[in-house]
Amino acid sequence: MTILGFGEGAFRFALFVSIFLAMSLLEALMPRRERRFPRGRRWLTNLGILASDYLATLVVFVLVPVTATVAALWAEANAFGLFYWLGVPVWAQWILGIALLDFVIWGQHLITHKVPVLWRIHRVHHTDEDLDASSAIRFHPVEIVLSVFIKSAAVVLIGAPALVVVAFEALVNGSALFNHANLRLPPALDRVLRLVLVTPDMHRVHHSVYTLETNSNYGFALSVWDRLFRTYVPEPRDGHDNMRVGLIEWQDDKPTQLLWSLALPFRNPPQSRPDALDAEPPRT
Length: 284
Hints:
Layout: H1 7-29, H2 39-63, H3 68-78, H4 82-86, H5 90-114, H6 116-126, H7 141-158, H8 162-179, H9 187-193, H10 200-206, H11 211-214, H12 224-228, H13 258-262
Helix pairs in contact: 1-8, 2-7, 3-7, 3-8, 5-6, 5-7, 5-8
């Protein structure tokens, strides 16, 4: 059994469980913020959404047998993609492959905030009012399926090797669990890490109720793209302890309900956003 066979799924699942448990333990030891809702209730909902994602991707794979790894294997077999056409050396394929795929995910994330129909789907993720490691798996099944196709297309165009794709998937999944964690890092460590990686404090800004903070810090693994494209906001205007997380339209317990969350793309907001939430946040 190889990592590119059925073992890939087992590898990713084992890695996910290991990092999730590690982040949950660290959250208990070094919490950044107090919780608004019982952890068990939120976890059941977020895990339920993850189960829905798995079922959706399974059904789609039966109909259209494509994943990022399958796409990479096809590109390798057919010598297709930029890396093959340009003769990029193997060591550079690893560096460029991971960087370019991370940029694709960054761009996909930005687009889900800019295109109204995609935002209706993506806001399922943003309605979580207690950010922790389980928030990293709170994505609507439709968004997950779309992401599979986008990554697969990017992999083919780039010509990223299958092992690079597996490594990238592990990196981005682990990074998402880390940067959604309710984790208090030493300030000096946070400053150093965010020079390269997205840290919990950096990503928490993205989950602010303020529109212009929500529309910032799109990175999942690497922090360079937000700095390069000027979407980086270093700190929330209200501070990490006092900031409100989630969407202002749903500051209640509804997002902790599984069926409500899965049906959210078909719901209209109950109220308009106050103008104050659209004001420009301070940038330093």
